[in-house]
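Hey, does this match?
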Amino acid sequence: QVQLVESGGGLVQAGGSLRLSCTASGRTFSDYAMGWFRQAPGKEREFVAAISRNGGTTDYVDSVKGRFTISRDNTKNTASLQMNSLEPEDTAIYYCAAVLTVFPSRAILTTRAYDRWGQGTQVTVSS
């Protein structure tokens, strides 16, 4: 099984940028589709972005399209989320997640499909 560790969260002013990283260990990283999710206080965990095993397919929740970019480097066992033009509504704990899949080009958007999760990293956007 793969283990995931997020980093890169912090406090930023509205309009600023942050880059989150997720480092994987334990099993072949390229066997996993990856996703980023977030959970704000009092709210359910929601999908943010997903990327296929080969990095060729990505998808985003509408609220972050044009502002966030998901990427991965299978040679470094990392997945990243570049977040630009941050808004106070983006404040949440951000989690990376992984799911083993046989499909190299499929991005997986469903929270319950993922079975490996990191511990989360806090992102706070001040107005």
Remarks:
- The radius of gyration is 13 Å.
- DSSP finds no helices and eleven strands in the chain.
